[in-house]
């Protein structure tokens, strides 16, 4: 009987040790996977919105886009008569103190890389792609982008003075023209009576957008040589996917056309740091 009990104890210990060994291996594998996954940030995916929006809701989203997404990857082409033609490629992660991102600017007229902007925590890097030089400096603003702003404040209708107030945004260069179109939104849409919602739901690059259009006042008309405009706004985030301005003859004058936009997909943090190999620092 003793022998049988001893054998059973040995079998139990053997099974227990094997179980512990398997558990340790599983833990090691899990730790390895966690280490491998650590550089990747993966937020929850957004749900496409199809509900009708009012003018006020459209403007409110345009001036508070930062509250409606966590990561963004994409590219767009922008042309202005005064500023030239550019293709901007970007990635952005909004994750508190770990927020980071970049935008890379390609000069379409000269067919060459122009410059890149990177930011991470309290640093910003400006890379001159032609001269192969870079400048590193502290971020001017270290706020975490503040609280949502009201339409009245954004369009400058305050009791003290008429001056627009914009939320603090990540220092991501030209990519902000699409991701954080606060200034354009207030300039074009501040007078609610001069624009209309033309289409509540339109599919564009697999996003559900709302299309608005209107007229520009004399001062803006002279400045950008345009009399009318159209904006295509992502209903989920308020991101400006597309805009166009036209002259009196209906000819296209200025535009921003997004080529790709991916929201709240996983992002590799390592890609958000600048590769300074071959660049010389300037002071």
Automatic annotation (TrEMBL):
Residues 16-45 are annotated as: Disordered. Residues 16-29 have a biased composition (Low complexity). Residues 229-275 form the MucB/RseB N-terminal domain. This is MucB/RseB N-terminal domain-containing protein. It comes from Mesobacillus boroniphilus JCM 21738. The lineage of its organism: Bacteria, Bacillati, Bacillota, Bacilli, Bacillales.
């Amino acid at each position: 009987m003793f022998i049988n009990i001893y054998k059973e104890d040995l079998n139990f210990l053997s099974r227990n040790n094997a179980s512990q060994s398997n558990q340790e291996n599983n833990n090691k594998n899990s730790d390895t996977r966690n280490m491998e996954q650590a550089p990747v940030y993966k937020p929850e995916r957004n749900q496409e919105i199809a509900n009708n929006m009012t003018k006020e809701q459209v403007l409110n989203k345009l001036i508070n886009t930062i509250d409606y997404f966590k990561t963004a990857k994409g590219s767009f082409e922008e042309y202005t008569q005064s500023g030239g033609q550019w293709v901007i490629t970007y990635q952005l992660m909004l994750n508190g103190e770990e927020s980071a991102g970049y935008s890379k600017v390609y000069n379409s007229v000269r067919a060459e890389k122009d410059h890149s902007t990177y930011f991470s925590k309290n640093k910003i890097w400006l890379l001159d792609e032609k001269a192969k030089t870079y400048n590193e400096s502290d971020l001017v603003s270290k706020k975490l982008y503040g609280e949502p702003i009201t339409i009245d404040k954004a369009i400058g209708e305050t009791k003290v003075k008429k001056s627009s107030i914009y939320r603090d945004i990540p220092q991501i260069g030209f990519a902000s023209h699409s991701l954080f179109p606060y200034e354009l939104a207030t300039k074009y849409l501040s007078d609610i009576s001069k624009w209309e919602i033309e289409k509540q739901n339109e599919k564009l690059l697999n996003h559900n957008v709302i299309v608005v259009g209107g007229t520009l006042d004399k001062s803006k008309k002279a400045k950008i040589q345009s009399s009318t405009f159209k904006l295509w706004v992502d209903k989920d985030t308020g991101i400006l996917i597309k805009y166009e301005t036209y002259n009196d003859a209906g000819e296209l004058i200025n535009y921003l056309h997004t080529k790709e936009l991916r929201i709240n997909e996983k992002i590799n943090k390592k890609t958000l740091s600048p590769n300074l190999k071959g660049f010389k620092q300037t002071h």
